[in-house]
Specification:
The structure holds two protein chains of two kinds. By secondary structure, chain A is an all-alpha fold. Chain A folds into two domains: 46 residues, no CATH class; 176 residues, no CATH class. Chain A contains nine helices and no strands. In chain A, α2 crosses α3. Chain A is elongated and about 90 Å long. Chain A starts with 7 loop residues before the first helix and ends in a 5-residue tail after the last helix. In chain A, 30% of the residues are buried. Chain B is mainly alpha-helical. Chain B has two domains: 83 residues, Orthogonal Bundle (Rna Polymerase Sigma Factor, Chain: A); 84 residues, Arc Repressor Mutant, subunit A, CATH 1.10.10. In chain B, α3 packs across α4 and α9 packs across α10. Chain B is elongated, with a radius of gyration of 18 Å. Classes of the chains: A mainly alpha, B mainly alpha. Chains A and B meet through α1, α3 and α4 of A and α2, α3, α7, α8 and α10 of B.
Chain lengths: 274, 185
C-alpha cells in the first residue's frame, strides 16, 4: 500500500490493460503514480515487461532431425486426388464400361435385397425363436479373416463361411433379426454370411475388372481402406466368438460388412482415372 | 536448418517456388520447406510444449501446405498464409486430442497442475524462458505464444481459438504471471 489513491489490489486489476496500453488517461495516471511509490508493483511490471520483450526476441528453434524425409514420403504417398492437378490429362474410356459396372451393382444390390428379404420371411414363418445363453465355445482363431486386396479374385478375402460361422445358436442374423432371436437350425447366420460373401465377391470382381481404369493411387487407398475394414471385421468376429449374444457386436459386424460392401460399390462406380 | 538436403539452391523468391510447388514441383516445395521449416517448427513446438510433438506437427503443416498450395491465391505473403495454416493445424490437433486438451483451454484458469510440474525443477536450476513456456498450461501457453512470440493481436487470437478477446487477454496475463513465478524473477 502506498500514499497514492490506488491500492495494490486495484493496481493488479488494472495491470493487464496497463501492459496492453489500453488504459484511459486518468486510470493510467493513477497506475503510474502507484508505480512510482510501490516497489512491489514496480517490480512486477518490470518483470512482466521483460518477459514480454524476451519472448518477442526468442530465436527460431531448429529441428533435431531432418523432417523433410517424412514430409516427402507423405506427399508422394498415394491419395485420392480430389482436384485434378493442372498437368494431368483426362483419359477417356468407353461409356459402356461404366454402364456395365452400374448394371452389375444394381444387380448385386437386388440379389442381396431379395435374399435378405427371403431370409427374414423364412425366419419368421418357419422357425422358432429361442434365447440361449452364450456359453458355447468357439475354436480360437476360427473367426479370422485374411486381409484382402482390391480386385482379389475368386474367394480370396471372402469370409470363409465354414470358418467364420460361430458355433452357437445365439448368433443373430445380420439381416435385421433381433440379436437374441435366431433360428434353431443355424441356417440364418450362414445364409447371412453367404449373402455378404456373394455380394462382396461380385463387387470385387467388378473392381478387379476396372482396376486398370482407376488411378493407381485411388486403388491403393481403396486397398488400404479395405484392409482397415477387414481388420475391423476380424475384431468383431473375434469378439463375437467370446460373446455371441451381444447385440452390439452383431450390429457392429453388420455395420462393418455393410461398409465393406459400400466401399466396393463406390469403387466399382468410380469414374475412370482422370 | 536440418541437414540432408539435396536440393540445389535456386536464387528465387518464394513466389516462384510457390507457383512451381503448386503445380506439383516437389523440389520447389522442398526449397519452401527449407526456407520456412524453422519458423514453423518453432511455432509448433512452442504451442505444443514438446519438441517431439513439434516435429510431428511441422510435418503435418507441410503436408497440409502441399495439399492446399493450389488454392493459394497470393492475396497475402506466402509466409503469412503458411503461418496461419500452421496455427490452424496446431489448434485443430489440440482439439482432436480430446478431453485433456479441452480441459486446459480457456477454462483452465484455475489449473493447479502447472505449479506441481513447473516448480519441481526450479529448485534444481533456474529455468530459462523456453522451458518455462513449455511448462505452461496448454491454454495459457497457446495464447502467450500467439501473442507475445508470434505477434498476433487479441482479436485475431480470439477468432483463431474461438474465444473472446477478453479471454485471450486474461490468459495472456495469467501466462505472464506464471512465467514470472517460474523464472523466479
Amino acid at each position: 500500500m502506498t500514499n497514492s489513491d490506488m491500492t495494490c489490489e486495484a493496481f493488479d486489476n488494472a495491470l493487464p490493460d496497463y501492459l496492453e496500453g489500453t488504459l484511459d488517461g486518468s486510470l493510467r495516471a493513477s497506475v503510474e503514480r502507484h508505480l512510482r511509490e510501490c516497489v512491489r508493483c514496480a517490480g512486477l511490471v518490470r518483470d512482466l515487461e521483460n518477459i514480454r520483450d524476451e519472448a518477442a526476441s526468442l530465436p527460431d528453434l531448429v529441428p533435431a532431425r531432418d523432417l523433410w524425409t517424412g514430409i516427402e514420403a507423405r506427399i508422394t504417398a498415394p491419395v485420392i486426388p480430389l482436384t485434378a492437378r493442372p498437368e494431368r490429362q483426362r483419359r477417356l474410356v468407353p461409356a459402356w464400361i461404366g454402364i456395365a459396372a452400374a448394371a452389375l451393382i444394381v444387380s448385386t444390390a437386388g440379389v442381396t435385397y431379395l435374399l435378405t428379404a427371403r431370409s427374414m420371411r423364412t425366419g419368421s414363418d418357419g422357425r422358432v425363436a429361442v434365447i440361449t445363453p452364450a456359453t458355447n465355445s468357439v475354436t480360437p482363431g476360427a473367426t479370422t479373416e485374411p486381409a484382402e486386396s482390391v480386385g482379389a479374385s475368386g474367394s480370396q478375402g471372402i469370409p470363409d463361411q465354414s470358418a467364420t460361422r460361430v458355433q452357437t445358436s445365439t448368433k443373430p442374423s445380420r439381416s435385421g433379426v433381433p440379436a437374441t432371436l435366431v433360428s434353431q437350425d443355424q441356417s440364418e447366420p450362414a445364409q447371412s454370411d453367404a449373402i455378404y460373401s456373394r455380394e462382396i465377391e461380385m463387387l470385387q470382381n467388378i473392381v478387379k475388372q476396372r482396376k486398370t481404369q482407376l488411378d493407381s493411387s485411388t486403388v491403393a487407398v481403396i486397398q488400404k481402406n479395405l484392409e482397415i475394414i477387414d481388420a475391423a471385421i476380424r475384431q468383431s468376429r473375434a469378439a463375437l466368438a467370446k460373446d455371441p449374444a451381444s447385440r452390439m457386436l452383431n450390429q457392429q459386424l453388420t455395420h462393418t460388412l455393410d461398409k465393406k460392401v459400400e466401399l466396393l460399390r463406390t469403387a466399382a462406380m468410380l469414374p475412370a482415372s482422370t | 536448418m536440418a541437414a540432408g538436403s539435396n536440393v540445389v539452391p535456386v536464387p528465387m523468391g518464394d513466389s516462384t517456388d510457390v507457383a512451381l510447388a503448386a503445380a506439383g514441383d516437389r523440389q520447389a516445395f522442398e526449397r519452401l520447406y527449407r526456407s520456412h521449416a524453422n519458423r514453423v517448427y518453432s511455432l509448433c513446438t512452442r504451442m505444443s510444449g514438446s519438441r517431439t510433438k513439434g516435429e510431428e506437427l511441422t510435418q503435418d503443416v507441410f503436408v497440409r501446405t502441399w495439399e492446399k498450395l493450389p488454392q493459394f491465391r497470393g492475396e497475402s505473403a506466402f509466409s503469412t498464409w503458411l503461418h496461419r495454416l500452421a496455427v490452424n493445424v496446431v489448434l485443430n490437433a489440440r482439439k482432436t486430442e480430446g478431453k485433456e486438451a479441452s480441459r486446459t483451454d480457456e477454462n483452465d484458469v484455475g489449473d493447479d497442475r502447472w505449479n506441481e510440474v513447473a516448480r519441481a525443477p526450479m529448485h534444481i536450476e533456474r529455468m530459462d524462458l523456453s522451458d518455462a513456456i513449455a511448462r505452461l498450461p496448454a491454454g495459457a501457453r497457446k495464447i502467450f505464444v500467439l501473442h507475445d512470440i508470434e505477434g498476433y493481436k487479441h482479436e485475431e487470437i480470439a477468432e483463431l481459438c474461438g474465444i473472446t478477446s477478453g479471454g485471450s487477454k486474461a490468459q495472456l496475463h495469467r501466462a505472464r504471471l506464471l512465467l514470472r513465478e517460474a523464472l523466479e524473477r
